[in-house]
Amino acid sequence: MKVSEVLPEQSILLLKYLRDSGSASQKELIDNLNLPLRTIRYAIRRLKEEQFIISKPDLLDMRSLKYEINVQNADMVEIAIQNASESVA
Description:
CATH topology: Arc Repressor Mutant, subunit A
Number of strands: 3
CATH architecture: Orthogonal Bundle
Oligomer: single chain
Largest sheet: 3 strands, antiparallel
CATH superfamily: Winged helix-like DNA-binding domain superfamily/Winged helix DNA-binding domain
Number of helices: 5
Shape: globular
CATH class: Mainly Alpha
Helix content: 55-70%
Order of helices and strands: HHEHHEEH
Mean pLDDT: 89
Strand order of the largest sheet: 1-3-2
Structural class: alpha+beta
């Protein structure tokens, strides 16, 4: 089974955004991906379960978190993104 078959399309979109931007808060993800809060929260939860992303405190606003690609699983992230791209083509 391919990783992209397990992850929803919105999770792959979020992964691509984090790969390209480095890190983002939940609000930044909502604003830049134009997805509802519930969808973003679900995608974050799924990606954290798969250990594709990690959360860190936002040093500028300690009330919020920043999400970024888990460098230990960066290879798996690229495979998931590539598999998703191949399944669309």
